[in-house]
Amino acid sequence: MIAVSKTFKEQDILPLLDYGHRDFGENKVQEALLKWPNLKEKYKNVKLHMLGKLQTNKAKFAVEIFDYIHSLDNLKLANKLANEIHNKNKKIKIFIQINLGGEEQKSGIAPNDLEMFYKSCLSLKLNVVGTMCIPPEGQDPKLFFKDLLILNNKIKLSEISMGMTNDYLDALEYKSTFLRIGTGIFGKRTN
Ligand SMILES: *Cc1c(COP(=O)(O)O)cnc(C)c1O
Questions:
Q1: CA 5 to centroid of ligand 1, rounded, Å
Q2: Cα separations (Å) of 101 from 7, 107, 133, 174?
Q3: Which H or E run includes 25?
Q4: Model confidence over 129-153: pLDDT tens digits?
């Protein structure tokens, strides 16, 4: 379970760290760079997960602080990440984000393009461990979780990043391996 700490401050995060929780999620590179270097220094083996849209020009900074990137959604970014990861000799685990609902405003690879995109990632030697989705609002998330499970099996990846505060039980039914829980842990976000 990833505790999604975006918008929350160090004082809100510390109790979880002291309790022993180690997986945390953020959706902005800049915010992560402000909050996490010190915490990662103090609490060894924290795993930080990038969950939000990643601009290519921020890939360099993302690679410095994150251990997982859940939002790989285009080839230009894949190229840039591969360069940065190999130059800095990092071991970052990557999820390909899939736009299952075909929503224009959401990023992600179209389901039909997944196999080809995955092959490109392999040739760039990216360590792709799974797929990720954010289901469209107002529809039954199970339909999308089911689709992601099928897609994930098709390319034989072992990890699935799906399920948030409101739908994590459904996500578990379809074999999610990474739940991303924010509100359910930290309470409502005010900004
Ligand atoms: C904010 C966020 C979450 C957590 O959402 P909650 O509804 O607060 O649990 C999960 N995944 C992504 C990609 C997010 O941006």
A1: 9
A2: 27, 10, 9, 17
A3: strand 23-26
A4: 999 999 999 999 999 999 999 999 9
Q: Does 19 have pLDDT greater than 80?
A: yes
Whether 180 lines ligand 1, by a CB cut-off of 6 Å, is yes
pLDDT tens string 41-78: 999 999 999 999 999 999 999 999 999 999 999 999 99
| CB 4 near ligand 1, within 6 Å | yes
Give the CA distances from residue 189 to residues 5, 75, 129, in Å, rounded to whole numbers and listed in that order.
Answer: 10, 32, 30
**Which pLDDT band, with edges at 50, 70 and 90, does 162 fall under?**
very high
- Separation of CA 87 and ligand 1 centre (Å): 31
Domains and CATH numbers, the chain: 2-186 (3.20.20.10)
Pocket test for ligand 1, best of 24, 27, 160, 180 (most atoms within 8 A of CB): 180
| Nearest C-alpha neighbor of 81 from the set 126, 119, 44, 112 | 126
In the reported structure, the alpha carbon of residue 109 is separated from the centroid of ligand 1 by a whole-number distance in angstroms of: 19
Among protein residues, the one whose CA lies closest to atom 5 of ligand 1: 182
